[in-house]
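User: Here's a chain of 467 residues. Predict its fold as tokens.
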Amino acid sequence: MKKNKLLINASIYGLLSVTSRLTAVITAPITTKVFTVEEYGIMDVLTTVISMLALFIALNLNSGVFRLYYEKSENDRKKLLSSSLLFYLAISGAVTVAILLNTQFISTFLFKTNIYYSLLMFAFIRFPFVLAYQQFLSLLRILHNARSYAFFSVTMTITSLGLVVALYITNQLTLFNLILLQSIIQIILTIILFAFVRGHYLFKWDKRSFKEITNYSLPLFPSVIINFFILSSLPILITQFATQFDTGIYSLARKMAIIFGSLLTAFRMAVDPMLMQVISTRDKPTFINISREAFNFYHLFLFPFIIFIYLTPTIFDVFIDDKFAPAISIINILAITLYLAGLNNIMAIGIAYTKRTKYISYAQTYAFILFVILAYPLISNFGARGAVYIVLISVIVQNIFIYIYSNKLLKVGFDIYRVALTTLIMFGLSFVTNIYFQIIAVFLCGIYFLIHLRRNRFLRYINDSIP
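Assistant: Prediction complete.
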């Protein structure tokens, strides 16, 4: 692997992730003008439901493929990919048929009215293609093929952006038209991507390969589901316990926070496959050193966090309709939650190394119990603000237990106290609203993070350790 491969891939993934998230910002002047706050929430609920079902059906098999891929021969790699893909298509096809036959009931359950049944039909005709598309993109990451990943991601982003603009110009921008055409685009791009990666598949079910995948992924599956509920199910819960207005406010705030989260996603998308490769090809001390430096490197993302939060009011003034203004006050909480959620992926490296994935499920279960206890009282009384605090508290509890379990399995020596203190300080600074104090905070934080960036050896370690 060439030097600076991590930096190149992270830059590509970062640009893509930011671009895809910026689509929501670029189209915000249109969507927040045309759609009511309630309609904005309905779109997010539909997206959440599709994501939730995709997680249930996928059984976290991609993580098993990710972990085992580098240990296999070329032919066995194709068996891993084919077995999981055939499983996805069979199950998702059956679920899609069942949903299309019961759209009125599901509409009443989700939105307390059956008038949105056609929206459900339009949204779910693409469901099997969503799962296939996700695996094909994951394969490009496994292959370190960031440029091809970029091509398909950019195509999806540009097409989605163009769709919103075209519908607006022609006065055809409605929820029904938007969701139907999004489904058609998803289907077409999935077919094209399949043609590109088809050489990596045998299209033959292999029982032994599928068993290997499930032996790794199934113990982790409950944690994936729980993590989804903690981080992504709130649009559904807010709709049930509060109002659709609160759902719309939360949905926009989450989309804005994910702009910052795209930086974290870029780092993880580049680093995760490389760390899995290091596990398979390097000795334990080398892996520990790389993991420790990755943890220290990750906390440097707190600097762009504070800059992003200070710029948020300006972004809203320029792009967002005034009726969504309450979302500004909860973006910093959502952004720090995304940062903490990404941090636990690095802290769990000892669990990944030993393949004792059940411990992640234990940690997630404790966090989920707290999430369930707090959900109704906080959301029903405080709406969107109560919802974001539920997620923040749950993720903190989850991180604590993951660190404890992972440290027992593999002592990496994370600088946990310094990083925790820095995170707490930066979160406190995110509530500062005076422009002069904000400038001082950015200047001092910039010096601190530049010093630690110069000292960090992660980029050099991982480039030297991957063949």
